[in-house]
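Task: sequence design from structure.
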């Protein structure tokens, strides 16, 4: 081979090497570029997983909080409904016990506890105020007849401070310290309100007939007490006769009301805290029942 031929061969070989090197570099570059793009896709994919995972965790936390709130609300509903159910039960039971003239011993313990709470929380006084407001509103719209035959019947026993005995009875086996001054406040406020309505009725010219469950032998004591607290000037004070002592109280009041009607009086209203005074025969006008501490 000539020298020129060797030279051409070397140049061709060099070009081939250069071409091969360039091709290898391009191939290497292409491969490296492919790996780089795959990394970006992986990063995007992982970032997406992180976002989805974070969203799922947030959702789980929200659901957990909602579940806890629901549980607390459900627990609260039970706590609220249970005393309400007990209260409704005891109120209905009390109505029927009073209607049938049964003693307070007929109450279960839960009702006695609610009765103490009824006094301690001020519900008794609120109901007393509402009832007395109804009485005042009624009598503010009417006037007694000129013939003096329109009368109002009142239960004398509501004037006497007997409530503290009832409260002590209710609080038997309960912590008396939880209501240490309850009986004092209730006694004072009830007497104040009953005396107030008595005074207003007297001032309005209404003849008042007072009926008592007490026997006739206690008349002087009853009169002295009523006068001492400023409740004098009644039209009549009726006490139990000897032949009425064994009589059921409802029957006794019915008998006395019938006698009052036969005497020509018209009963405009009857006021008492007990149903035996407000039920039976001989009723007339409106009946106003004051709240009863026991019933």
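Answer:
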């Amino acid at each position: 081979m000539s020298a020129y031929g060797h030279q051409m061969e070397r140049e061709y070989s060099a070009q081939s090497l250069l071409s091969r090197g360039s091709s290898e570099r391009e191939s290497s570059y292409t491969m490296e570029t492919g790996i780089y793009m795959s990394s970006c896709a992986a990063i995007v994919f992982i970032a997406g997983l992180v976002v989805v995972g974070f969203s799922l965790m947030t959702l789980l936390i929200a659901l957990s909080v909602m579940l806890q709130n629901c549980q607390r609300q459900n627990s609260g509903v039970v706590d609220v409904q249970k005393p309400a159910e007990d209260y409704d039960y005891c109120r209905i039971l009390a109505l029927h016990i009073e209607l049938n003239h049964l003693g307070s011993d007929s109450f279960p313990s839960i009702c006695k506890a609610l009765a103490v709470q009824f006094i301690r929380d001020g519900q008794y006084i609120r109901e007393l105020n509402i009832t007395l407001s109804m009485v005042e509103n009624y009598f503010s719209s009417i006037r007694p007849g000129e013939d003096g035959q329109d009368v109002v019947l009142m239960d004398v026993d509501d004037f006497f401070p007997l409530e503290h005995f009832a409260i002590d009875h209710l609080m038997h086996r309960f912590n008396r310290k939880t209501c240490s001054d309850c009986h004092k406040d209730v006694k004072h406020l009830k007497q104040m309100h009953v005396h107030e309505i008595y005074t207003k009725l007297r001032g309005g010219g209404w003849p008042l007939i007072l009926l008592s469950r007490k026997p006739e032998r206690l008349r002087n004591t009853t009169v002295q007490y009523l006068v001492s607290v400023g409740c004098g000037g009644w039209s009549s004070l009726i006490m139990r006769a000897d032949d009425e002592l064994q009589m059921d109280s409802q029957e006794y009041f019915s008998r006395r009301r019938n006698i009052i009607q036969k005497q020509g009086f018209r009963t405009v209203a009857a006021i008492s805290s007990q149903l035996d005074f407000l039920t039976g025969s001989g009723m007339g006008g409106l009946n106003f029942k004051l709240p009863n501490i026991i019933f």
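The chain has a mean pLDDT of 75.
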